[in-house]
Amino acid sequence: MRRLAPDREQYELSRDEQAQLEKLVDAGTVLKALKDEKAFKSDATWKNIPFYKPKEGGQTPSGYAGRVGIYEVMTVTSTIKELIMAGATGDAIEAQAKKEGMLTMSEDGIFRAAQGLTTIEEVLRVVAE
To answer: How far apart, in whole angstroms, are the C-alpha atoms of residue 104 and residue 110?
Structure first.
């Protein structure tokens, strides 16, 4: 997906935007991952995490420069290995992986938006394709 240009504009999520975010992803899991990666302090909440958008009239016409990937990576732990060997459904395996901290592609996109690499709108555009 498109990476924001360095001359981006900072903004805070409104209550409506935060509610929409919580409908899209497990916001608690993403916030925990951000704290685990030390991207934000341990007492951070969605209310005080800055997000960014393209700057009008900035360095690039679109406000974006370059690309950044979003990923969904599942570590095969012993528990997941047992589920696979037992012939568990994909949903059961995914549920266990999420319990163990796996981020979905949408959640990884929001993680990258919270880091200031892209916008929430760009994540939604790419994930919907």
So the answer is: 10
Q: What is the pLDDT of residue 128?
A: 86
In a domain, 88, yes or no: no
Q: Tell me how many domains the chain contains.
A: 1
Residue range of the domain that includes 66: 2-70+105-128
What the block records as the tokens of 95 is 């549920």
Residue 126, helix vs strand vs coil: helix
Instruction: Point out which residues pair with 10 in neighbouring strands.
Output: 52
Residues 15-47: pLDDT tens digits? 888 988 898 899 999 999 999 999 999 999 998
- Collect all residues with Cβ–Cβ distance below 8 Å to 39 and sequence separation of at least 6: 114, 115
Of the candidates 123, 100, 106, the one whose C-alpha atom is nearest the C-alpha of residue 51 is: 123
pLDDT at 113: 96
**What one-letter code names the amino acid at 37?**
E
> What pLDDT, in 10s, does the model give residues 54-81?
998 888 999 999 999 999 999 999 999 9
